[in-house]
Amino acid sequence: MPKNNKHKDIFKSPLIKDSAINRAYKANLVEADILNHQSNQSSLKNIPHKKLKIFYALVFGLFIVVFFQLLNLQVIQGQEYRDRAENNRIKNEILSSPRGIIYDSQNNILVKNSPNFTLYFTPADLTNDYSKQEEMAHKLSEIIDIKSEKILELFKQADPLSSQPVIIKEYIDYNKALKLKILLEENPSVKLETQAVRDYQKGPAFSHLLGYMGKITKKELEDNDDYRIIDYIGKMGLEKEYENQLKGKDGIRQVERDNFNRIKNIIATKEAVPGNNLVLSINSSLQETLYKKLESEIKNHEATGGAVVAMNPQNGEILAFLSSPSFDNNLFYKGIDEKTYQDLINNPDKPFITRAVSGEYPPGSTIKPAIASAILEEGIASRYDTINSTGGIKISRWFYPDWKSGGHGITNVVKAIAQSVNSYFYIYGGGYNDIKGLGLELINKYLKMFNLGTRLGIDYPSEKNGFLPSRQWKKETKGENWYIGDTYHLAIGQGDILVTPLQVASFTATIANQGTIYKPHLVKKITDVNNNTLDDIEPDILKTDFIEKKHLNTVREGMREAVLSGSARALSSLPFSVGGKTGTAQYAQNKPTHAWFTCFAPYENPEIVITVLVENGGEGHAAALPVAKAGLEEYLADK
Fold it and tell me: What is the largest CA-CA distance in the chain?
């Protein structure tokens, strides 16, 4: 029906009769409509053609954008969004495995686990509603003392598709953890996880031995795909060496969550498998006694550091293993700050170096029992052959002295070891006048038999090889020929030869047990969480019977005589018999010598070898021997 007043009037007028429009008016009405229509068409025609094209182009462009957006959502990223939608409903949650405990040989706990509350979020679970993120950041900030802006920045920087956790704060104390737990029940997109961190029980005497745990790095994460970015991993010592045994296997819990991320149902649970325990051969009392005495001697002699290795010569078990200076590995458990860490890293005395296996030093006279074994085995001299020590030997213009002015007189191999007579080893080691010595090649052959110049394979990371010089090495590195003087120096443990304290302990043990080299080991047993034995470590023989026992017994006599009448007489008062050898190693001009002492006891049936190095400590009998004596008293006093 027409709506304008004009048409309204028409319906009221006589122009309408019996529901029909008067013919004359009808004609006028139709004509008027046609005119109006024509008028509208005329107005469209008045729009410029160029503007119409732009309009149509915009409409077409909008259509294309919508089309490709739909294509992207439905086809290209369709599966990802479907997966995310599904993941929002079904979640896999990691159940951290408790790390294994480490015990000493008497089942004393050396390291245990303590809870560490860690607050984190998973970006893929985080709400996209910024106002809710702000609200969450504010509430968290009130509990954990971190500004809400910083928490929001973590939310903002995270990849929204990532399922890798992002840590907000670690080492949260128990009371704050309780508050967070209540808060997060209503806001489960942020999680509070209890992780086990290591609590080292025995202090710096055990720091190098046990090592420490640290946050996993990106590189380590790439190499270990069963770890998460918030996990810790062994960085040093036994924590690193036995990472696979100690870690265990994380479990997983599959849960169903509603739209508010609240748990509706636990679908399945695979429990975590706890890590295995390590039972060491280490005797804690011995370790602590040796450490305390070593620290004392380092201080008394203004030395720069030291190391001690104690070993059972009958099976290769390590009874004590320590280095100084040390550090507090609990700093890492509590979260070491950057300044403290940098101070340790930049400490000129290098406290992170495990000198017992990573320190390489000239052995000084501690090498003489090994050289004497080679001399006897090769028949260069018998136990009865002697030289006359007059204070040294002269080759051309070069003089090679004894340590004792005027010399030691008539000397056989036993006396040579007992009094550390250099001339004996110059003559039978390098040759002199009509006496043919071992020479460089035979010396190196036997030192290699004693496993010098190569790692022993202890179950500890960072073991060094040591070094045995050769003609070729000297020519290539120094551009010089090998001279007889080089062989003389090598025969008394000076010059370019390098050994680790563990290597000295090993060849001392080989002489003590009459010819067997055992692979040294720190772990004697691996057990499960219920202390059931999984692996009982058996002695591993690396080499045996490469020198006749009668020759080794002669060398043993020399080491025993060193205690009875030689350079180690300070041990003669002990209530058990000891064989030993002092050493004083020169390594640089205008610097104090390194002090060595190595020994075994009881002499008749050795149960323990102790090797001590005091870096820049001066004379072996003065700085190193007292440490070994304290250890022998501790270990054998009640036996």
Answer: 162
Beta bridge partners of 255: 91, 266
Model-level pTM? 0.81
DSSP string covering 524-543, please?
EEEE-TT--EEEEPPP-EEE
Residues of the chain with pLDDT under 50: 1-44
Q: Which of 78, 168, 97 is nearest to 126 (CA)?
A: 168
The kind and range of the H/E element at 91 are: strand 90-95
- Closest of 431, 215, 580 to residue 571, by C-alpha: 580
Q: Which CA distances in Å does 126 have to 96, 143, 166, 177, 400?
A: 22, 20, 11, 20, 78
pLDDT in tens, 494-550: 999 999 999 999 999 999 999 999 999 999 999 999 999 999 999 999 999 999 999
Q: What is the pLDDT of residue 333?
A: 66
In angstroms, the CA 407 to CA 313 distance is: 34
Predicted local confidence at residue 65, as pLDDT? 77
Identify the pLDDT of residue 215.
83
- Confidence at residue 519, expressed as pLDDT on a 0 to 100 scale: 98
DSSP 519: P
Residue 441's pLDDT is: 97
Query: In the beta sheet, which residues pair with residue 116?
Result: 195
Task: Look up residue 213 and give its two tokens.
Answer: 């745990």
For residue 120, what is the enclosing H or E element?
strand 109-121
Q: Which residue has the tokens 């002092």?
A: 582
Cα(411)–Cα(385) distance, rounded to whole angstroms? Answer: 8
Q: How far apart are CA 449 and CA 437, in angstroms?
A: 18
- Rounded CA Rg of the chain: 42
Task: Residue 393: name the closest of 437, 445, 446 by CA.
Answer: 437
Both tokens assigned to 481: 């020929």
Closest Cα to residue 186, out of 263, 134, 111? 263
Q: Token pair of 635, please? A: 């270990």
What does the pLDDT read at residue 90?
A: 74
The interaxial angle of helices 368-377 and 549-564, nearest 10 deg, is 140
Q: Which residue has the tokens 């030993």?
A: 580
| Consecutive H or E run containing 63 | helix 49-71
Residue 582 in tokens: 């002092």
Neighbouring C-beta atoms of residue 154, cutoff 10 Å: 17
First to last CA, the chain: 124
CA-based nearest residue to 28, from 10, 40, 12, 42: 10
CA distances for 93 relative to 122, 255, 260, 262, 335, angstroms: 11, 8, 17, 13, 25
- How many C-beta atoms surround the C-beta of residue 212 within 10 A? 25
Check: CB of residue 381 under 8 Å from CB of residue 415. Answer: no
3-state secondary structure of 395: strand
Name every residue whose Cβ is closer than 8 Å to that of residue 136 and which is 6 or more positions away in sequence: 151, 187, 189, 190
Kindly tell me the sign of the dihedral angle through the C-alpha atoms of 394, 399, 400, 401. positive
